[in-house]
Amino acid sequence: MVTFPYFLIDPTLRYCAVSEALAVGGLVYAAVWVTYPLSGAQINPIITLAFGLTRRICFFFVPVYWIAQFLGAGFAMSIAYYISPFVKLSPDMGMTMPRSGITAFQALWLECLITFLLLVVILAGTDEARETVWTMGSGSTLACVYMLMYLVTTIVTKNLTGASMNPFRSIVAAILRVRFEHQWIYAVGPLVGCLIAVVFNEVVLTEDACWIRTKAWLTDMHYFRNHSYSLSGRPSKASTQAAEEVRRFSTHTKAHKA
């Protein structure tokens, strides 16, 4: 669904980047709102990889999500491609390509940077170690964060690299257009950005960050994200919140039975 607009927005529009950003941002908001309670809003293979690497989801499910994401992107973009009146306007229509004056190296690091920024915000917004008010909140907060990051990164880099941040989005467009030059950029750039964002989040950003937690994350098969690995021995805020919720539920249940 999120990839649907890429072949349907007139590339000759003066503010094409803004139009595409608004369309994609709105669909991202809707997708996160609808699917987060069901599947964790796995709308991008790079986000899924980051969730697997940070042990938020079992790595067994990563290829399952990837298959669904690739098929979904292929289905949506194929429909848009065959009904779009704009595909004949440009051989690059709908594709992610380095724009005129942008070298492959520059495009690679721009994709790496915007993917890093996107994932830092998303990983922070879904971190169980943070207080709820700073994470998913009521659900709408997280959807807004997703949408705003897609809006900003697309507006800034659409006319530079195409603002992919999603290898499947780029691969499907390349298959439909039968043009594969420079597509390695949109696999390598987001992957590198993902790896940097994962390490930065786990080692620096997460509330309970310490070398004991990092070691457990990398080596312990039974690593548990909500467990406090703090050197101080104090429970994390997430652990405290979980205990408080259990206490409230228990109190409510007893009162109801009485």
Task: Based on the coordinates given, report the CATH architecture of the largest domain.
Answer: Up-down Bundle
Beta strand %: under 5%
C-alpha-based Rg, rounded: 20 Å
Number of structural domains: 2
Low-pLDDT stretches are none
Mean pLDDT level: 81
Task: Report the count of strand segments.
Answer: 0
Counted by DSSP, the helix tally is 9
The CATH homologous superfamily of the largest domain is termed: Glycerol uptake facilitator protein
> CATH fold name of the largest domain, please?
Glycerol uptake facilitator protein
The sequence of SSEs as H and E is HHHHHHHHH
3D shape: elongated
Helix fraction by DSSP (H/I, runs of at least 4) = 55-70%
Largest sheet, strands/sense/barrel: none
Distance between the termini: 49 Å
What structural category do the secondary elements indicate? Answer: mainly alpha
Please write the CATH class name of the largest domain.
Mainly Alpha
InterPro entries: Aquaporin-like, Aquaporin_transptr, MIP
Keywords: Membrane, Transmembrane, Transmembrane helix, Transport
Pfam families: MIP
GO molecular function: water channel activity
